[in-house]
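Risk register update: the risk that structure generation would not scale has been downgraded. Supporting records follow, first protein first.
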Amino acid sequence: MAAIDIIKWEVNDKDFCHKYPSDNISMGSQLVVYPGQTAFFVRGGKICDGFGPGTYTIQSDNIPILDSLINVPFGSAGNDGGTGKSKSPFKAEVWFVSGIARLDFKWGTPVTMQLEDPRYNIIVPVSAFGQYGIRISEPRLFLESLIGNMPGFAASQIEAYVKGKMLARLNGIIAHKIAEDGVSILDINSRLAEMSDACQKALNQTFCAYGISIVEFSVISVSVPDDDPSVVRLKEAKDMAARIRITGRDIYQMERSYDVLEKAAANEGNGGQMLSMGAGLGVGIGVGNIMGNMAGAHLDSGLQNPPPVFDKTYHIYVDGRQIGGLSAEAVMQYVKSGKADMTTLAWTSGMKSWAALGTFPEFGRMSGFDTDVPTPVPGVE
């Protein structure tokens, strides 16, 4: 191959570096380095000299390291037109590295990240996407670290390399930033600028070892699936916290007690029957078990000690026979039908002996009758 006269690489946005196609170079050739580029002579795998933007005539006095490596004889008569400078060709590679940033790369989490909300301690699936740029900040380090004997390094190649390492780290970076700031995942989109800066700083600590800088990194959106059960719970927790902040904890608890009472009255189960039979608001408060003494002041129920939830079964002695396994409501049905009254003997788990029905606090209050009753019939088992 004939010796060349001009060595250059036209700037483009498809490649970050380029190896000049010929390694047959002669002294006196011109090296043209465009703005944003750095050119290196490489011989035998060793990077010799680097040149910034400008036009250079290749001579021994401006590439002294290369000159010592190739040991070009100078002053050969008839080879330089009497100038005393050799124009003999020599073998060396010329690499160009572009320092111009490309800013149009996209990133996105390929699978959802499972992150714990630092405020409500609920783990939810999170997706994120954004944009970033790449710039070769240390051209020599970039050549030494990644190029080797490759003929070039296209933008698509470096994008694939950077994106793979980037996505492997972003999960941890985003999770750490969310935990550090204590911001709910539902509110993170209001902090995207801070999130972007933190990601760019952390990623550059990784890529600086390769002479690569991540620039203009941005987190455009962090999203969660609205129909995911964990996200639903997270939104409910956030709504509850907001209501407590606005109304105060005591008032919020009172509102919740009203909800419990309404649901109990609407149900056809035991709770609804008790309310309909006159158990009253105090029973509902006992079912809710959330108001305590505060409910008496707010609701003016007049009950100092609301009766407990009826979860016992009872035995009663009616018409000379023992009837067992009855709920409190079933016992009251016997009273209402006239088959039993407050003097009827009854027994439930935990009692040592039978006692009159009127001596049971729950039935005495429900009936409204005088609970002073005659002494139970002795000898009844």
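Supporting record for the second protein:
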Amino acid sequence: MDWSLFYPYILNMKTLSRVLLFVCGILLVVVLFVPMWRIELDAPQYPEGLMMQIYPNKLGGNVDIINGLNHYIGMKTLHEKDFVEFKILPGIIIFFSIACFGVAFLGRRKWVEWVFGVFVSFGIIAMVDFWRWEYEYGHDLNPDAAIRIPDMAYQPPLIGFKQLLNFGAYSVPDFGGWIFIAVGTCLLAIVIYERKTKYKGLEGVSSGIPKMLFLGMIILTSCSSVPDAIKIGRDDCQFCKMTISDSKFGAIYFTSKGKSYKFDDLKCLQDFIKSGQYIKNAKDQIWLVNYLSPYQLIELEKSFLLQGGNIKTPMNGNIAVFANKIDRSQMAQSLQANSIDRSVIAQ
């Protein structure tokens, strides 16, 4: 059998796949110069918030202030020299960038699958290592610290939000992290596309798949299905234009296109909806601040409301929101407030 007949379909990738691999290589070079991850801290005593950014080879942001706070609660201070990751991570990123360029140049299908597999494995190992780092810093506390709370740990969330005393901690990918996610998604799209076009008979099948996946990747990494939490002392109410200052109250109108309209009071949200400033879409969402857990957002459909009594909100809507019926029932008596139906909010 003349195996050369199969050579073009076994080894050679499509031009589009090669172009996408080349783009991935360039994007990975960009990662060397931008933050990959960030941890934000919000608290009433820091109205503008604190932020630590993690680059491939250094720490950025308000590291000195965060180290000062860590000292009081017994956490170790953060120093770049203590992280071996900062010494090896740039080399790993360069390796993947060169691998993308190399496979794009040589055009071998099997190699792109190998690069994708190693890339995903590295991502998993990196997240496990990040969790281990957070766990050690959040649990290995100095017993002689000025502030010591029994059984209290200060481990930040791996991703998402967590309440740590009076601080709301947000852990999310930064620009470089989203690039990594985009590259991984793009590599997956290439692998799927190349497998579908591996044989000549399937060459024309699903030719639009990589374009659709690449577009979907961009949309996925640029949009979120959950709005960012309200930043107390920094965000302004969309309706009354007052700075949002009370963490127990507030709401977010989250549009289907990913835009957030933030409010300091449910009354302002109601007035905003009635005013017609924004044309409602069936896919829009309303998120409300949990009265008992500041910085936590609850979907309107899952919320339970009290109004009146001792509840005093910034714009006199006097509505408090709870995550479940038990919390609402327990607080109804102490607040001398009445239960109301959630449907009144979106009317």
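The two ends are 74 Å apart (CA to CA). On this basis the risk owner (M.S.) recommends closing the item.
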